[in-house]
Write a structure and sequence with these properties.
Helices cover about 35% and strands about 15% of the residues. Helix 4 crosses helix 5. A hairpin with a 2-residue loop joins strand 6 (about 180-185) and strand 7. The protein has a five-stranded mixed β-sheet, sandwiched between helices. Strands 2-3 form a two-stranded antiparallel sheet. It has about 220 residues and is an alpha/beta fold. The model has no long low-confidence stretch (mean pLDDT about 95). It contains seven helices and seven strands, in the order H-E-H-H-E-E-E-H-E-H-E-E-H-H.
């Protein structure tokens, strides 16, 4: 797999006290003081029990939500976005078990992994460009650890653009758009609007539109 940021020398997940983004590090320390019972650290990728080598489908989001993954320690767990995402994964057979919005709910991924392009929670859910770029080698290291990977679903433009760059391609050649499909090397990309409560409440993204994206992903894996 060709990548502009090949992740050489990087683990697939940042260490708990990753210092690479000072603003994000400071924000996490503030949250540790305010909420000592929360996870408050870079959120690791959620893998199937068999590990990254079995992953054929990867979902890439933006960043952990403050009261979602930053609180629980599992991507898309603890806020509305996870309700929609994991219900959809279950429907298409990419997960099993009942999602109950906590990391010990027993939900199991099937040939699928879930991660974020930025692993630390950003203030106001808005990472800056330098933080996205600084975290990209971890995404590259993760991709390199998934030899069976065939399809990536990107949730939102930031996640999409960061994934395209990680794969060593030009954004102009693989523009973001809901339902847009493209191919980089051996990997098919399918883009989706982010499954946030704001997007669903405003009608920008409906459940049917979201399911259509995963239908495309499922078709690509057949």
């Amino acid at each position: 797999m060709s990548a502009a940021d090949d992740g050489i020398g990087f683990p697939i997940d940042p260490p708990r006290d990753c210092p690479r983004c000072p603003r994000l590090r400071s924000f996490i320390l503030e949250q540790r003081a305010a909420h000592p019972d929360w996870f408050n650290a870079p959120v690791p990728t959620f893998y199937p029990p068999e590990g990254p080598a079995t992953v054929e489908l990867l979902i890439v989001g933006l960043a952990p939500g403050l009261r979602g993954a930053n609180r629980t320690g599992r991507p898309f767990t603890g806020d509305y976005a996870g309700d929609l995402l994991y219900a959809t994964l279950n429907e298409f057979g990419f997960s099993t078990g009942e999602f109950q919005a906590r990391p010990d709910d027993g939900l199991t991924l099937v040939r699928t992994a879930v991660t974020n392009s930025v692993r630390c929670v950003p203030p106001e859910n808005k990472p800056v460009g330098a933080e996205i770029a600084t975290c990209r080698p971890f995404l590259a290291a993760s991709l390199a650890d998934m030899p069976a990977l065939r399809v990536i679903v990107t949730l939102g433009k930031i996640a999409h653009d960061s994934t395209v760059r990680t794969l060593g391609a030009r954004i102009a050649d693989h523009p973001f758009g809901h339902g847009a499909q493209s191919r980089i090397g051996d990997v098919d990309l399918v883009a989706s609007y982010h499954c946030s409560r704001y997007n669903t409440n405003t009608g920008r993204l409906t459940e049917a539109m979201f399911k259509d994206v995963f239908r495309l992903a499922d078709d690509s894996l057949k």
